[in-house]
Amino acid sequence: MKLKLLIITILFNCNLYSQFGGPIIIPSDINGLNNIFSADLDGDGDMDVLSTSKTDNKIVWYENEDGEGTFSNNHIVSMNNDYGAINYVYIADLDNDNDNDIVAAYDYGLVWFENLNGLGIFSEAKLISYDVDRAIQTKAIDIDDDGHKDIVCSNIYNDSQVTWSKNIDGLGNFGPAQRIAGPGINGPNYF
């Protein structure tokens, strides 16, 4: 059954006594919600919401319009099927331009979407690596201490390994995936 509403519980401090409000219902047209992430995607200083849906393979984001939890309808980032099903997203500045980009882990590829103008307009998928097999989680961290966010990825199927891809120039150009652990480790899950 196709979801008509994406329900995300976002708690806001509603008074001086730290009592919290109830769930905020964000209208959506996605099918098979499997991941959410929150970050400022449009550079206005408040937290927006990003979601993925495995059944219809969408990555969408919802703008926090007033900073108090009034959300826009979804903005589609991708409905890409070139890399299999979407499993996980992570948000970080990968090209050192002071806005948040999106990293996406698919069944058969790891990609990123550049925030083109800092306002939440995203590029087409940019390949990081095909050297993943059903990636289940990814993070952007500076592995080699060069000031650039590299990509770490775990996958659990077939080869069960953890890899990292070096951000070569700090502009989002990545080297080949390098194995940190595996293959054959007992199911790296989430880190």
From TrEMBL:
Keywords assigned: Signal
Respond yes or no to whether keyword Membrane is given for this record.
no
Pfam (any one)? FG-GAP_3
Q: Which domain of life is it from?
A: Bacteria
Where do transmembrane segments lie in this chain? none
The name this protein carries in UniProt is VCBS repeat-containing protein
The species this protein was found in: Aequorivita vladivostokensis
